[in-house]
Design a protein that fits this description.
Layout: H1 4-10, E1 18-20, H2 27-41, E2 56-59, E3 66-69, E4 72-75, H3 82-96, H4 100-108, H5 116-121, H6 147-159, H7 161-170, H8 187-198
Parallel strand pairs: 1-2, 2-4
Antiparallel strand pairs: 3-4
Helix pairs in contact: 2-3, 3-6, 4-6, 6-7, 6-8
The chain binds zinc ion (ZN).
Residues 87, 91, 149, 152 line the site of zinc ion.
């Protein structure tokens, strides 16, 4: 565990952040290091999204791992990992852009819900799950998978490709099935790659 002064020495943006709620001692450092990893993924002249000033962070006992709204992320303090943190940070970036980035990803990969109303009625029926065009999905598909989740998982998989590959094959969605080994080579990996370079 490191104190606020130490953290500010490593992450000069830390004192400007708005973080509230009871959280484990390592939480602030995980948050800072994830923000920094995302910032460093952007290639000049593309400016990183402002995770420091444009998002407020709260820790609260919630059912989910995290919940993201425009300008606000609520984290579950019991399950804070780098993976969930980057996932929610990606949602915040998308939310700040009125969820347009995930919609562009959806269109570029030709993904969609074929029968959205049937998916609502029968969420467990695989046939009505989100259709992943230009596969593979970053970590497989489930009943809660949507365009927004696709984007958040793609950003996270881009930063942690080995973890993503493991998650995908564990769920039975190995990249090899679509002829890929590394997430960065997949259509979604390429999309995120160019997003960090071209905005
Ligand atoms: Zn999510």
């Amino acid at each position: 565990m490191r104190n606020a002064i130490d953290l500010a020495a490593t992450y000069d943006f830390y004192p400007q952040m708005d973080i509230k709620g009871d959280r484990p001692p390592a939480a602030d450092e995980i948050l800072c290091s994830c923000i920094q990893k995302l910032q460093q993924a952007f290639v000049t002249p593309v400016l990183p999204f402002d995770w420091v000033g444009a998002v407020k962070y709260e820790f609260e006992d919630i059912k989910q791992l995290g919940l993201t709204y425009k300008g606000r992320i609520v984290f579950n303090p019991r399950f804070l990992t780098e993976w969930t943190t980057v996932h929610e940070l990606a949602h915040a970036w998308d939310a700040a852009n009125n969820w347009l980035i995930s919609d562009i990803l959806r269109k570029e990969t030709h993904s969609r819900f074929t029968f959205p109303w049937l998916h609502k009625m029968f969420p467990d029926k695989k046939l009505f799950w989100y259709h992943v065009g230009s596969p593979p999905a970053p970590c497989g598909v489930g009943k809660n998978f949507t365009a927004k989740e696709d984007f958040a998982e793609s950003v996270t998989a881009y930063l942690f490709p080995e973890v993503a590959r493991g998650k995908a094959s564990k769920k039975g969605f190995s990249y090899a099935y679509n002829g890929y080994i590394h997430f960065h080579d997949t259509p979604r990996g390429q999309f995120i790659h160019s997003l960090f370079r071209n905005g």
